[in-house]
Amino acid sequence: MSGNSDPLSPRAKLAVTAGKAAAAVSRAAGRGSGSVIGGRVALKLDPDLLARLATHLDVILVSATNGKTTTTRLIAEALRAAGPVVSNALGANMPAGITSALAGGSEAKFAVIEVDEKYLSGVARDTDPKCIALLNLSRDQLDRAAETRMMAEHWREGLAGSKSVVVANADDPLVVWAASSSPNVLWVAAGQMWKDDAWSCPSCGGVMQRPGDDWFCGDCGFRRPTPTWALSGDHVLDPHGSAWPIHLQLPGRANKANAASSAAVAAVFGVPPQVALERMYQVQAVAGRYDVVQFMQRDLRLLLAKNPAGWLETFSLIDPRPTPVILSVNARGADGTDTSWLWDVDYTRLTGHPIFVLGDRKLDLAVRLEVANQQFQVCENLDQAVQMAPPGRIEVIANYTAFQDLRRRVGN
Question: Which of 158, 159, 172, 179 has the most Cβ atoms closer than 10 angstroms to its Cβ?
């Protein structure tokens, strides 16, 4: 940071104004929300702007491979019980998008910020967060993100000696190893369905032992910490052992886990679990995820899944067979251009569902489904897939840019 102690110096105000103008032009041109280009313009004019904008806020950072947008939204809803909140609710989670979000938060008390895994250390350095929530780490965007052990090491170095309260998932060995460098950690037993990135010890490289929900390394003794918060069925257990019911409109076990971590974060700021969980019930959809939309006289539920862990969780919450399922995969810059991750997904879980495949990389997905011995049809577009699907609600699962394409097509 520069020596100017005024968080809203004339230069900072100019940068904010210019960023908002650039965002408005982008929106008028139909190029999305404009938050990224607005943030880039603002940071060009004042490279210290993110740090300045954060000085008057209690900042909460949320990072993970899966679930960070939803968890950010749940935490924001919970903390509104204690004061105004600013958040990057649409998921622009790199420094430019985060700067844009904070530029609109001059009246806020809290900033609840989703952060891309690669940028967590830098954003934490700039914003001096009071709390950091770490949910999970798994393989994602293989062409862009380093392998998971390297990402965990990056987090571990960035968190070393941090003053923040770190709320971390005790069931993910990579997250535990990353968070253990921090002196102030609240461990949450949030569960881990996808385990294929955590069979070797991140501390010594030995083979992890994983009896039941427990885990430990037989070589170096690195092991699961004792949690202070836990997800137990449909309840959150707080540090006193009290069980608080989770009532969500969002489906699936993964969102209950997100709610448990969110309740632990809210408690750091004095919001009781009962109040936090009641407020989370307001959330019906997150940036289009889980929305049920009408298209061509059919009900479509839109589900986002970007990597093997995300697809595994999503398969667990779709309606039972023979519900039709549309799968759409792209491999554009925002998705990662390497589609080899498709081979890590267990598509046998879709046996008995009529499957329809589309997207830029539909043929990559078709080969994978063929090998998995699934019955499917390749379609040119969403309209054709919906026309061919048998009666009933259709589950639509797509990765990031494919999801955005589908939302535009259905007018969501």
Answer: 172
Q: E strand or H helix at 229, and its extent?
A: strand 229-232
What residue type is assigned to position 344 of the chain?
A: D
Please check whether residue 107 is in contact with residue 280, taking contact to mean a CB–CB distance below 8 angstroms: no
What residues contact 355, with CB distance under 8 A and at least 6 apart?
324, 325, 326, 327, 369, 374, 375, 376, 377
The closest alpha carbon to 116, from 77, 144, 143, 79, belongs to 144
Cα–Cα distance between 92 and 89 in angstroms, integer?
8
392: left (phi over 0), alpha (psi -120 to 50) or beta: left
Q: Is the dihedral of CA 288, 139, 314, 300 positive or negative?
A: positive
- Assess contact for 95 and 101: CB atoms under 8 A: no
Q: How far apart are CA 356 and CA 94, in angstroms?
A: 33
Q: Please tell me the predicted confidence (pLDDT) of residue 305.
A: 94
Q: What is the CA radius of gyration of the chain?
A: 21
First CA to last CA across the chain, in angstroms? 41
User: 61: which strand partners?
Assistant: 113, 132
Per-residue pLDDT reduced to its tens digit, 55-65: 999 999 999 99
Read off the pLDDT of residues 140-183 as tens digits, 9 standing for 90 and up.
755 444 478 899 999 999 999 899 999 999 999 999 999 999 99
Cis, peptide link before residue 390, omega less than 30° from 0 = no
DSSP state of 381: S
Contact 86, 111 (CB under 8 A): yes
pLDDT confidence band for 4 (50 / 70 / 90): very low
Q: Which two tokens stand for residue 403?
A: 């999801």
The pTM of the full predicted model, rounded to 2 decimals, is 0.91
Residues 361 and 9: their CA atoms lie apart, in Å, by 48
CA–CA distances in Å: residue 366 to residues 355, 389, 402: 10, 17, 16
105 near 139, Cβ under 8 Å? no
Please report the pLDDT score of residue 139 as a whole number.
78
**Where would I find the H helices in 227-281?**
253-268, 273-280
Let me know the angle formed at the C-alpha of 70 by 192 and 332, rounded to the nearest 5 degrees. 90
161 near 183, Cβ under 8 Å? Answer: yes
